[in-house]
Amino acid sequence: MSKPVIQFIRGVDEFTVPDVSLTRSRDQTNGVATFVFDQPSIFDSSRELGDITGFYMIDEEGTLQSVDVSAKFVNGKPAKIEARFVMRTPKEWDRFMRFMERYAKENNLGFVKK
User: Fold this and answer.
1) Helix, strand, coil distribution of the chain in percent, nearest 5
2) Rounded to whole angstroms, how far apart are CA atoms 65 and 62?
3) Exposed, middle or buried: residue 111 (CB in 10 Å: 0-12, 13-18, 19+)?
4) How large a percentage of the chain has pLDDT more than 70?
5) Which of 17, 53, 59, 51 is nearest to 35 (CA)?
6) Distance from the CA of 20 to the CA of which of 2, 8, 95, 110 falls in 20 to 30 A?
7) What is the pLDDT of residues 6-32, one digit of tens each?
8) What does pTM read for this prediction?
9) Mean pLDDT within 82-89
């Protein structure tokens, strides 16, 4: 059983734990997860390893991925990465939630409902 990880470059784990916000449609058919990484560790090594190629959530079931990734800069220096993962079906939502349960357990994360 592999531990759940997030990567921006395949094969390079991201060690910064993100803030995650979830939204879901009223009819429960789709949703969006937004991840915000403050000072992600990939900024320390991306020069040597190459460009960020996407957003990959990897666990024992496989890989969930998105290309909706953007960097935020402060005074010309990278400060944050924001990644969005869109779920278009209840099945995709359930799969994402299974990943998040594993990732949260591994990283001691909690859930706060607004």
Assistant:
1) 25, 40, 35
2) 10
3) exposed
4) 93
5) 17
6) 2
7) 999 999 999 999 999 999 999 988 999
8) 0.90
9) 97
